[in-house]
Structures are given as C-alpha cells and as structure tokens.
Amino acid sequence: MNRYAVIDFKTTGPSTEHGDRPIEVAVVKVERGQVMDCYHSVMNAEVPIPEAIQSLTGLSEARIRQAPSASKVMKAVAKLIGNLPLVAHNWGFHGRFLVGEWQRIQVSPPPTGVCSLLLSRRLYPEASDHKLGTLCKHFELPRPQGHLTALRDAEMTAQVMIQITQDLKRQYQLKRVPYDLLCRGQKASKANFAQAVQQTKQELGL
Q1: pLDDT per residue as tens digits for the range 134-181
Q2: Is 23 exposed, middle or buried (0-12, 13-18, 19+ CB in 10 A)?
C-alpha cells in the first residue's frame, strides 16, 4: 500500500444513529512512507455541540456556526481522497461517520478501511494501551500538544501507520504491504495474526 489517505473526525458524539455529526475533519495523504499532503477544516452540520465536546476539542458553537457547511467540506474530502485506500485509528468509529456524510452528498463510501488501532493491538501487545498518544510515545515519535484536533490525530495516525508498515516488512520479510494483507490481518485474532500474514504473503507472492 504505497499510497493511502488517513482520515480523522471530531464529532458531536459517538453515535450516528442518535444524530451525532462531524464538526471537524482532517485528511493526511501518505506516499511511500512520507506525508505528502494535508487537508483540515471545521464544518457546520447544524447540530448542537455539547459543552464537553467544546471543551475537549476547543471548537465553540460560535466558531462552528461560521464554518463552511458539512456538505461543502465533505465534497472537498471526497475529491481529495478519490480512490485511495483509507486508514483511521479506530476505523469502526471514523468509517461510520464517513459513510454517513458521504451518503448525504450521494458519494459512494468505501467498503472498508484499514484500522491502525486493530493492527497495533496485534503487532504491539507490549504497549500499555493503544491510544495514539501512547503509541507515539512507544515509538518515540513527536506528539503535538494542545486540543484534540482532527489534524493532530490524523498526523499521529499517519506516523503510526508508517511504523506499522515498516515493522510488518521487517518482521515478516515482506517486499511490500498491500491493502489486502492489512485488511486480512486486522480481522484475524491476536493468536492467528502471524498465520494470517504468512498465508496472505504466500497467496500474493510477497
């Protein structure tokens, strides 16, 4: 997977089913292990923002009310991503919001994405936990300070994913790390992860 896009949302809450919507999005494009491009925007989905979310993200109601519409921002995100494979730290969360927002603007959502959280749990069981900040500390990567912005988290996710790719290549003597291998690996149990990687390596001639 030489080229991919990392996506991160900040939202009004955890549940699309209960009307929560994104209020901030960031996309970081990675090519051959290097960050090549970034996009970041707040967005107005015209829903209330709980005080706890405002405190956590630093995004006030006043700022969001002046932001571009969610549809305008998500159209820009769709254009930027194109057909690139997608990565998120906790794909189950971010993918759910991406699907919901793209359906609103009639853009076909991806069938799935790569979850750096699931992969990190399988590759680094020795880590105290698998939050982005903890993993960056574990790898001795720089950690941005301040509020939990979507751009900050997308940048950290990109660095974690680059590390995951490098470690997979080294541990399993892989020439490359394709999308299919990552998707199969994240679905495997921790006990069966190595077997899943080796099997995919043989099938794809890696």
Answers
A1: 999 999 887 766 667 999 999 999 999 999 999 999 999 999 999 999
A2: buried
